[in-house]
Each structure stands twice: as C-alpha cells, then as structure tokens.
What does this fold into?
Amino acid sequence: MQALFGTRTAADINLVAQLLLLAGLLAGFILARRKCFAQHANVQTAMVLLNLALILLFMVPSFYGYIIAGQSVSGRVAQLMIGHGVLGIIAEVVALYLILRMRTTLIPKQFRLGNIKFAMRATLALWAVLVLLGIGIYRALPPAPHCSSSDSLALISTFTLWSWRMRRPAAVRQRSRATPST
Ligand code: HEM
It folds into this structure.
C-alpha cells in the first residue's frame, strides 16, 4: 500500500484497525445476544462507518494502485485483491443498508428485508472471511524496504541542516537589532 505514507505503514495501520473493528463487531453481536439492542446498534454503526473511512482512505487507493493503474489482473495477489474487493463492497453496502433499515425510514417498504437477523449474521460471517482474505493479501505483499542506520543518519543530518538554515535569518535579525546603526 503506497497511497498515504509511501511505505507499508498504511497497510499495518489498516491491518490493526481491521482486527479491532472485527473485535468490535463481535462485541456488538454479544450485546445483541444479551438483548442490549440500543448499544448493539450504536457499536455496529460505529464499526461500519469507521470501516467505510478505512476503505476510502487505504484500500481503494491501494486497489487502484495495484489493479487499475498497475494493470495487473492475473497472479495470486491480484486475484485475491479482486475477490476481496468485490466481496468487500458487497459487505460494506449490505452493512450500510442494515444501518439505514434499522435506524431510519429511508428504505422504501418494498425494499425492506424481512429476515433482518439472518442478514446481520451473514454480513458478520462475510466480514470475518474478508478479514482472513485481507490477512492473506497482507502476507502476500512484499515487506517495506528495511530502514538502515545510514538512512536514519542521513535523515537526522538533513533535518539538522534544515533547522540550522531556518534559524539563521532570525539570529542575524536579532544581532542587527542589538547593535543599532549610527
Ligand atoms: C468489510 C469490508 C472489508 C474488510 C473487513 C477488509 C479487510 C481487509 C484487511 C484485514 C486487509 C489487510 C490489511 C492491509 O493489507 O491493508 C485488507 C487489505 C486490502 N483490502 Fe480490504 N477489506 C474490506 C473491504 C475492501 C474493499 C471494498 C476493497 C476494494 C475496493 C478492499 C481492498 C483491499 C486491498 C487492495 C488491500 C491490500 C492493501 C495493501 O496492503 O496494500 N478491501 N482488507
């Protein structure tokens, strides 16, 4: 994933966030089993909306980079990504539908699902499969190039030089103020 940070940091953030979201959804499922429906609705809504942000911020740019701009549709990783992407869109759209269906009256009567419990369980199961597929993609992609100590030294010296240059005009100004011209 090159989209935001230029290294696989974004993929690491996405992976950890996705595991936390799945844990959150499972906690929400337990809340429903305990008949705490208001809390269940709030937790699931938050997880689905956070996931929408992760899809738009991290996964769509990565998908675009590898599959569309990179024009790669064959090979194991590309096929995993395409399968994951298609199922991911379905899961997110169904999850958003469930939020609208449960929390609003925006869905017209003829499009309101009857067996909502089954739809919720199926979405959670698909979500868990997607996380597993995502882990598969994460493991299949090459790791970030290792930062050597000479890279760190180069970065520190560049920053020191830059901050010294930024400070110099201020110091020169201060000195000229201290010695008033005749
Ligand atoms: C419920 C929906 C989704 C879940 C639970 C999910 C989960 C995950 C997880 C756990 C990863 C591994 C972390 C990573 O490598 O970044 C991942 C990676 C990825 N996902 Fe998803 N995903 C979902 C939807 C989508 C959608 C809709 C797309 C495509 C538009 C997509 C495209 C990708 C791509 C391309 C990667 C590889 C990112 C990289 O490492 O460069 N995902 N996903």
Summary: Residues 1, 11, 14-15, 18, 51, 55, 58-60, 62-63, 81, 84-85, 88-89, 91-92, 127, 130-131, 134-135, 137-138, 141 surround protoporphyrin IX containing FE (CB under 6 Å).
